[in-house]
Design a protein that fits this description.
By secondary structure, the protein is an alpha/beta fold. The chain contains seven helices and nine strands. It has two domains: 47 residues, no CATH class; 187 residues, NAD(P)-binding Rossmann-like Domain (Rossmann fold, 3-Layer(aba) Sandwich). It is globular and about 70 Å long.
Length: 260
């Protein structure tokens, strides 16, 4: 009667195989945890902490105080944040980033967002190039579908530029794999935090997250799809699933139903 993953994504459910009378619902509650990841990654990469950590381990003090060839860097509060997708994750991340004093803009599938957001502008994906060009940090959290797969490639990363940071907490294939690797390897962009990947473990057997050697790059923060994996996330999801099961039994309308 009901398929209810304890997750937001339903891309692993074979909708065509389900009888039409079977309901499908999802649940979120990950936005607070992922927003913390976004802010942490934005600070770490925009301020150069990932590089500084690696160099100090080799005895190199990589700041403008000790090396005059290194320019002083701005704070995160001076950054313009570009959101590719502005759902639960984007909205919660923006709320935290506003506290730093950041400005922001967003592109969405519809070109609209709900309510007053404080963003500089909102447009549809036809304005993606403009968003990449004006942003210092780009947060990718759009849903993966036939329209969004590979939407960020070499041209978009080049538009982000050598001072730009990319954070992907949506789905790996939203960003073209080879284009991302090449942009990081050639310093086309400053850095990236990637929490969503191109290969995943099967049957509990670990694997590299890509066929490309991202792990050899010094300017990437790699995490195992863990940005939303907190006690807070799964407690909320368990409550949602249980509540929907009770509604189903009582014949009440379910929440967070997926249109089929």
């Amino acid at each position: 009667r009901l398929v209810h993953p304890a997750a937001a994504g339903t891309d692993r459910i074979d909708m065509a195989a389900l009888p039409q009378n079977v309901l499908v619902a999802n649940t979120f509650h990950h936005e607070r945890s992922i927003a913390e990841y976004v802010v942490g990654a934005a600070v770490m990469l925009s301020r150069g902490f990932l590089t500084q950590d690696a160099r100090l381990r080799d005895g190199i003090w990589a700041t403008s105080v000790y090396d005059r060839s290194i320019p002083q860097i701005p704070t995160l509060g001076e950054a313009h944040i570009g959101f590719v997708g502005f759902g639960h994750i984007g909205q919660r991340s923006w709320k935290l980033l506003q506290a730093f004093g950041c400005t922001g803009s967003a592109v969405t599938g519809s070109g609209r967002v709900a309510g007053h957001t404080g963003l500089t502008w909102v447009g549809d994906t036809g304005r993606l190039d403009g968003l990449m060009r004006e942003s210092d940090v780009v947060v990718v959290s759009a849903p993966l579908n036939s329209h969004t797969e590979g939407m960020i490639g070499a041209a978009e990363l080049a538009a982000l530029g050598s001072d730009g940071v990319l954070i992907n907490v949506g789905r790996g294939p939203l960003v073209q794999e080879r284009a991302l690797y090449d942009a990081l390897a050639a310093d086309v962009i400053k850095g990236a935090a990637i929490d969503v990947w191109y290969r995943y473990p099967v049957d509990g057997v670990g694997c590299a997250p890509s066929d490309l050697p991202f792990s050899e790059l010094p300017n990437i923060l790699m995490t195992p799809h863990s940005s939303g994996v907190t006690r807070d996330t799964f407690a909320g999801r368990a409550d949602d699933v249980a509540a929907n099961i009770v509604r189903l039994e009582r014949g009440e309308p379910l929440r967070s139903l997926i249109a089929r």
